[in-house]
Amino acid sequence: MFGYKVPTLITCPSAVMEHWADEIRLWYKKKEDSRIVQIETSTFDRDVKRAESADVAVIGYPTLSYFGNKPEKVTMLGEVGFKYGIIDEAHNAKNPESMRSMAVKKLYDGMDSLAVLTGTPVPNTVIDLYMLLSLLDPEHLKIHSENARAMLSSFYTMFRNDPESVRRILNEKMLRRTVEDYLHEKVPTLNQRTLEVRLDGEHGEVYKALYDNDSFSPARKLIELQKAAIDPNLVNPDLLPEKLAERLGRMESTIYTTLDGLIEQTIDEKGKLLIFSNLRQGVTDKLKSRWARYGTLIVDGEDKTRDVEGYDGRQEINKREFIRKRFQQDPDTKVLIATTVMDEGVDLTAATDIAHLGLPYTPAAFDQRNRRAQRIGEVQKSQVNVHVLKAVLDGLTPTIHEGLERLLEDKRRIITYLLKEPFSL
C-alpha cells in the first residue's frame, strides 16, 4: 500500500474511522495530501462516488450492517475497483449468517491482497475462526449464508476429533506479532485485582428474592440477575415481593458505594478512572449525575444525541471522538463511563485505572476493554490498575458474577491452547 498507488478499502469499527484517517496521513507517502474518503450510512452514494478517485476509503461495520440486505449497494462499493483490503477488528465479521459478515466477504473475496487484523482471533468459541480463515482462503474454506450452520458444524466436529488440525490451519494463516516486536517498547503492566462486594441489606434481599423466583424464563432471569447484581433499583418490580417492589428507586447499591471509594482513591493518586458497564439504561446517566463533580463523561451509544458541554457540531471531529479527547486531555475530566461501543480500537490511555461493572461473556471482550488503557498511546505510563467488582452473598446463594468467572475461565483455556500452548487442554 505504501510504496504503490493501490486503491485501498478499510473496514473497521466506527469509533476508529477517524484514527485510521490520521494514521494514513502519518504513514502513507502522500502524507497530508492523501485522498481519504470516509463512507457514511447517511451519505453512502455520494461517498462511494468520491471513493473512485481516493487513495483510501474507510467504512464502518454499522454501515455494512445497514446495507447488508441491499446487495446493489455492496456491489456499487465493490465496483470502485479496490485492489487492497484491510479488515480491522475482523472478529466483528465472525458470523456467516449475518448480513454484515456476508457483505464483508462479498467486498473482499476478489481483492488482490488482504490483511485481516484482530487481537482476538478466537473472540468466543473455536467456530468463530472459520469466517476469518474463509476470508483469507476463500477457495478452500468456502462459505455461503444458506449453508453456514452445516459448515460451522463440520468445522467444530473437526476440532473435536483432531484439535491439532485447527491449530495447524490457524498457524499457517496467522502472523502473530506484539507491540514489543515492532515498537521495541513495553506496554504498561496490568495490575488486576478482584474487589469482592457483599450485597448487604436491601440490595442482597432483592438479589435473593429474584434468584429464588422461578416463575419466569431462564433467559429473562439471567438478564434480571445481571441488573440486580449491580443496582437493585433496576429490577422489574413485578418479579419481587410487594414490600421490596415498593422500595425500588430508593435503595442503595453496594456496588456503587464501593465505586465511590474507588473513584476517590484514584483521584487522590492523581489518576483517572475508566468504567465499563454492560448495561446502559438506568445506569450510565445515573452514574454521571452521581459523579458530576468529577467531570464525568459518557460514551454509551446514546452519546450521539446527548448534549455535551463544549460541542456544538462545528468541530471537525464527531461527538464521540470529542468526548474521548476531552477525557484524554482535560485534567478536570476524571471519570469516563463506557459501554460496549468503546470496547475496541480507541485510545483511552489517560485512564490509570479501569473498573469492570460486571463481566462480558467472552475473554476477548474483557481483554479488549483493558487494552483501551494498557497500550502505547497518547498518554504514557508504566502501569494500569484493573478492578473487577464481584458481587457476592452469603456463600449459599451463587451470584451471576461467579458464574461468568467460571465461563470465562473455560473459554480462555481453549484460546490458550489454540494460540499459545499446544498441549494445554
Structural shape: globular
Q: How large is the share of residues in beta strands?
A: 5-15%
* Biggest sheet details: 6 strands, parallel
Number of helices: 17
The overall strand count is: 11
Major β-sheet strand ordering: 6-11-10-7-9-8
Helix content: 40-55%
Termini, distance in Å? Answer: 40 Å
The rounded Rg comes to 23 Å
Helix-strand makeup class: alpha/beta
Unreliable residue stretches:
none
Helices and strands, in order, run as: EHEHEHHEHEHHHHEHHHHEHEHEEHEH
Q: Mean pLDDT, as a whole number?
A: 88
Give a written overview of the molecule.
The chain is α/β, with parallel strands linked by helices. 41% of the residues lie in helices and 14% in strands. It has 17 helices and 11 strands. It has helices spanning 17-27, 44-51, 61-66, 71-78, 99-108, 128-136, 148-161, 163-173, 179-183, 201-212, 218-230, 242-245, 254-268, 284-290, 319-329, 363-371, 400-419; strands at residues 8-12, 36-39, 56-60, 84-87, 113-116, 189-198, 273-277, 297-299, 335-338, 353-357, 383-392. The strands form 2 sheets. It has a 6-stranded parallel sheet with strand order 6-11-10-7-9-8, sandwiched between helices. The protein has a 5-stranded parallel sheet with strand order 2-3-1-4-5, sandwiched between helices. Strand 2 (36-39), helix 2 and strand 3 form a beta-alpha-beta unit. The relative contact order is 0.10.
